[in-house]
Design a protein that fits this description.
The protein is mainly α. The protein has one domain: Acyl-CoA Binding Protein, CATH 1.20.80.10. About 60% of the residues lie in helices and about 0% in strands. The chain is flat and about 40 Å long. It starts with 10 loop residues before the first helix and ends with a helix.
């Protein structure tokens, strides 16, 4: 069985991604919990790949929300997650 490896993101795309990650930290309007889950999930998928941890326990509401956001992105390539992250951050800034 062969696995197709996607090429690593280009330097320009990485720079855009890092800029978008910095912009998220400086948003003037507080994102909704749903938006934060998407941003977190796309960031983790872009930097790590598919979920590699157990879902947090029943009383860890924030941890579960973040984990669920990441799990929702499962299967996307790192490059696709980076592109979606950049686009999503641009939407949040508008």
């Amino acid at each position: 069985m062969e696995f197709e490896m996607s090429p690593p993101p280009t330097q320009g795309l990485k720079a855009e991604f890092e800029k978008a990650a910095d912009e998220v930290r400086r948003l003037t309007v507080q994102p909704s919990y749903a938006e934060l889950a998407v941003v977190y999930g796309l960031y983790k998928q872009a930097t790590i790949g598919n979920v590699n941890t157990e879902r947090p326990g029943i009383f860890d509401f924030q941890g579960k929300s973040k984990w669920d956001g990441w799990k929702a992105q499962e299967g996307k390539s790192k490059e696709d997650a980076i592109k979606e992250y950049i686009a999503f951050v641009e939407e949040m800034k508008a």
